[in-house]
Amino acid sequence: MIRKALTIAGSDSGGGAGIEADLKTYSAFGVHGLVAITSVTAQNTQEVRAIHDVDPEVVAKQIEAVADDIGVDAAKTGMLSNAEIIKAVAKTVKKYSFPLVVDPVMIAKSGAPLLREDAMDALIEKIIPLAKVVTPNKPEAEKLSGIRIENLEDARKAAKIIVEELGAESAIVKGGHLGLSEAVDVFYFNGEFKEYRAPFVDGCTHGTGCSFSAAIAANLAKGKELEEAVRIAKEFITMGIYYGAKIGYGHCPVNQNAWIEIPAEKWRVYESLRNAIKELVAIENLPQYVPEVGMNFVYALPRLYARSKDDVAGVKGRIVKFGSAVKPVGGVEFGASDHLARAILTYMNFFPETRSVLNLKYSEELIKKASNLGLRVSFYDRREEPEEIKAQEGGTIPWGIRTAIERINGKPDIIYHLGNWGKEAMILIFGETPQVVLRKLKMLIE
Ligand SMILES: Cc1ncc(COP(=O)(O)OP(=O)(O)O)c(N)n1
Ligand SMILES: Cc1ncsc1CCOP(=O)(O)O
């Protein structure tokens, strides 16, 4: 069954907040998005240049059009610019019984007012009492409750006022602005407080309020209980901020796609590497090229999502010689590689599309052959490693890869080093995908 969620909100031409953020959020949760546009804003990551409010009657008609035909399983409100729009929305949503999430949008991240001064009373009187949940941030909760919020205790008081005095069914006061090491959201529902905690993430925040409230609405539309919907929305928004889309020169927007793209990419990476490893171990003359320390073959998530070794898939326990054959010791896992993960993550800082690498035992003959075949070869010399890098745990490989890339001022297919005391000489073959790495390997050794 297709679930439908409606957003009654303004449009952000920059695609970071408003209707655009809501629709992306609905999509991320597999919910069909419906829209009632309240205002059109000319906006980017730095400023709001113009606002055109839609005729309140047209706002009402949009809600009716979709509710009467398609049906609405849950809805949210965002920017409701003026008192007439607020009244029209309140009157219209009352005709239906869907749960309503209210994001009391007042000011854009860039500082522009999105709610007229004289519309605050209408928002409080007409919209808040219709809310299943209201999702203010600190300044919004202060305006609604009339109290100053300095700490979690104040946030609890404000949430209680919004429910018990203003008439919402529940309220969640978001703690992103409280300056704590954790982002603590205070939820008041059925006479009880609950806290939702996540590490404070210093990332992209334009559209957080919109996306968070839309995520609650999407999950309500899917039939989740309110507390579960809030828990999922918190996880979703933390991820979206962390993997934010670094675009524009101002406040960069939340990346709603991270929620679905990361699991999808993990699956693609896993499958592609597993297939490549099957092909690798079947190469007849491979055993002679397996180093004493073993071989690994890794594939990283796309650059936006590749931050640490846990974002790189490799073979658990490496690939080793086994009699006359070569065998992976364990399965393909994220976080299984240490050395090659550091190598590829460094390489990707220069060439983000190159996401796969494997290591071979060094042989002068292979290096000569690689050059003759037209592959670009570079190297680093461990004896030249600066003392301060040596002192840094895990610093050698990133330094070596940087040095090798800078040496040729280009994109090497192969980087080798001749080893040092206790360090085996090694060849690394890089490629966009494991299949590309395999092709280069086969050119070299078959
Ligand atoms: C059209 C529109 N609606 C809402 C907003 C507010 O979004 P933002 O500035 O990112 O603030 P938060 O809602 O995330 O706290 C907007 N800018 N434009
Ligand atoms: C390239 C390399 N250098 C030392 S061991 C090794 C093989 C792979 O190591 P890991 O499994 O940690 O990626």
Automatic annotation (TrEMBL):
Taxonomic source organism: Thermococcus litoralis (strain ATCC 51850 / DSM 5473 / JCM 8560 / NS-C)
Protein name per the record: Bifunctional thiamine biosynthesis protein ThiDN
Catalytic reaction list: 2-(2-carboxy-4-methylthiazol-5-yl)ethyl phosphate + 4-amino-2-methyl-5-(diphosphooxymethyl)pyrimidine + 2 H(+) = thiamine phosphate + CO2 + diphosphate; 4-amino-5-hydroxymethyl-2-methylpyrimidine + ATP = 4-amino-2-methyl-5-(phosphooxymethyl)pyrimidine + ADP + H(+); 2-[(2R,5Z)-2-carboxy-4-methylthiazol-5(2H)-ylidene]ethyl phosphate + 4-amino-2-methyl-5-(diphosphooxymethyl)pyrimidine + 2 H(+) = thiamine phosphate + CO2 + diphosphate; 4-amino-2-methyl-5-(phosphooxymethyl)pyrimidine + ATP = 4-amino-2-methyl-5-(diphosphooxymethyl)pyrimidine + ADP
EC number in record: 2.5.1.3, 2.7.1.49, 2.7.4.7
MF term (GO), any: phosphomethylpyrimidine kinase activity
Gene3D superfamilies (UniProt xref): 3.40.1190.20, Class II aldolase/adducin N-terminal domain
Keyword Kinase included in the entry's annotation: yes
Keywords: ATP-binding, Kinase, Multifunctional enzyme, Nucleotide-binding, Thiamine biosynthesis, Transferase
Example of a GO biological process term: thiamine biosynthetic process
GO CC aspect terms: cytosol
UniProt similarity note: In the N-terminal section; belongs to the ThiD family. In the C-terminal section; belongs to the ThiN family.
SUPFAM superfamilies: AraD/HMP-PK domain-like (SSF53639), Ribokinase-like (SSF53613)
Role according to the record: Catalyzes the phosphorylation of hydroxymethylpyrimidine phosphate (HMP-P) to HMP-PP, and of HMP to HMP-P.
Pathway terms, separated by semicolons: Cofactor biosynthesis; thiamine diphosphate biosynthesis; 4-amino-2-methyl-5-diphosphomethylpyrimidine from 5-amino-1-(5-phospho-D-ribosyl)imidazole; Cofactor biosynthesis; thiamine diphosphate biosynthesis; thiamine phosphate from 4-amino-2-methyl-5-diphosphomethylpyrimidine and 4-methyl-5-(2-phosphoethyl)-thiazole: step 1/1
Ranges for domain Pyridoxamine kinase/Phosphomethylpyrimidine kinase: 12-255
Segments forming domain Thiamine-phosphate synthase ThiN: 272-442
Pfam families: Phos_pyr_kin (PF08543), ThiN (PF10120)
